Amino acid sequence: xxxxxxxxxxxxxxxxxxxxxxxxxxxxxxxxxxxxxxxxxxxxxxxxxxxxxxxxxxxxxxxxxxxxxxxxxxxxxxxxxxxxxxxxxxxxxxxxxxxxxxxxxxxxxxxxxxxxxxxxxxxxxxxxxxxxxxxxxxxxxxxxxxxxxxxxxxxxxxxxxxxxxxxxxxxxxxxxxxxxx
Amino acid sequence: xxxxxxxxxxxxxxxxxxxxxxxxxxxxxxxxxxxxxxxxxxxxxxxxxxxxxxxxxxxxxxxxxxxxxxxxxxxxxxxxxxxxxxxxxxxxxxxxxxxxxxxxxxxxxxxxxxxxxxxx
Lengths: 181, 120
Prior knowledge:
The structure holds two protein chains of two kinds. Chain A has a single domain, classed as Arp2/3 complex 21 kDa subunit ARPC3 (Orthogonal Bundle), CATH 1.10.1760. The longest helix of chain A is centred in the last third of the chain and has 35 residues. Chain A is mostly helical. Chain A has a two-stranded antiparallel sheet with strand order 1-2. By secondary structure, chain B is mainly alpha-helical. Chain B has one domain: Arc Repressor Mutant, subunit A, CATH 1.10.10. Chain B has a three-stranded antiparallel β-sheet. The longest helix of chain B is centred in the N-terminal third of the chain and has 22 residues. Chain B is extended, with a radius of gyration of 21 Å. In chain B, 12% of the residues are buried. At the A-B interface, helix 2, helix 5 and helix 6 of A face helix 1 of B.
């Protein structure tokens, strides 16, 4: 009863999230504003998709993925701040989803979700994720340039989400092309 | 598998299908090549004068390209959502090439670009 979603959703989400975190560091490490602050954050795209599809199981997968990378690679922040940030990376999208259900008029089944609506949802996810994360860093005393870091986090989340969504679109188009032969 | 579990998986799959549909519909810039852009410009001049263009007329509008190429490009323009084909109300064998919402947006964007260029 409990193990099925863990095996089917949490573990794959965690693995994919961890892989995206590592890939993001590898690809965009040179775009760092300060350690850990980059202008592109690919995992935010997975956050969006995982939460929209799997809700709390997706959030758990993101937290597990985030914590496992933290455990292996360590962090620029102290342990408590880093663990808090990992928890927020999974919980903030859940809050964003709740906001979207109320404000962006999306339904639980995503039936009424349009392309423009999805972009609006991505913006809400990116903004809330960035705000909550930066508030946590500010509260724990790790935010030296709050507004600049907030702007970077928001841009990174949005660009990352768009890149992942458009990558999915390309994959879908390519698979349709392959099926047609 | 219990009923509630089956319902959960069914809901998840419905959400997946809806998300895939939405992602497929994400906006992209129509990538027109030179021939397609030239065909569209020629059509636009006619539409501007309220002239109707049949598919056969559209295929011979650009003398420098063959009818086969013109036909292929018409199909591409339709696939990219830049034109649509309407049936004649009296004769179903006749089809008219008509602009779409994307065509109007395309020309509106070009118009804005020209305006900006003039102001610069």
